[in-house]
Amino acid sequence: MRQLECKLPILIDKFSEHSLYKTSLMSYFDKEELMKENFDKDNITKVDFNRAQDFQRPWVKLILEDLHKHFLKFAKQMGFEKCIINDLWFQQYDNQGTHGWHVHGHNYTGVYYVNFNNDCAKTRIIDPVTQQVRDIDAEEGDVVIFPSTVVHRALKQEIDFSKIIISFNISFDDVPRGKYD
To answer: What domains can be seen in the chain, in order of their start residue?
Structure first.
């Protein structure tokens, strides 16, 4: 088997509306019933993944339009004209929270760091070309996207702080006519 290397980017950009939405999002997430997930080596305090395609949830309706605009910036950066949000959910990791190695569906996935500080557990990936383990250096308010086939995990949260993220699966589409002719 031959292998051709094709570097695919991991993009990180500050969500400019983060300060506008954080307090409201935290309020919504605080009211959510405890939906603890413990699968294998996972320990997620709260998650609404079971409703990831329900775009009528109040917190989703609040942020969806601006988040879509932000995702569209990523799409255009990579030469696409269209972005479809397929799934959107939140996860909360309290002390000892973790999420084991996994991949996602669709062509891109990512994380929006809603409540996060410098001591929070990072997102770790396996570089698909080099097979090296790398940590994503993100800050609160950052949105990170990467190809959905990149193996990744949430490291164990080892502080008394609720790390809260919004995760998503998105599809980039519509290559502009003539762009590569």
So the answer is: 12-173 (2.60.120.620)
